[in-house]
Write a structure and sequence with these properties.
The protein is mostly helical. It is built from 2 helices and no strands.
Length: 52
């Protein structure tokens, strides 16, 4: 029981949230929608690859 309880994992910070099975599709779609518009900024390269 101690290891199978999702609420204990949430309290300890192992998971972000405990959602009901009926809400799974909505939560997954919201997460994918958020990720689809994510723009990742890459830093400029410090060193080029020189000719070999």
């Amino acid at each position: 029981e101690r290891l199978l309880n999702p609420y204990v994992a949430a309290e300890r910070g192992y998971v972000d949230a405990v959602i009901a099975p009926a809400d799974t599709r909505t939560e997954v779609l919201a997460a994918l929608d958020m990720l689809s518009s994510k723009r990742e900024k890459f830093p400029k390269r410090k060193h080029d690859n020189g000719p070999l």
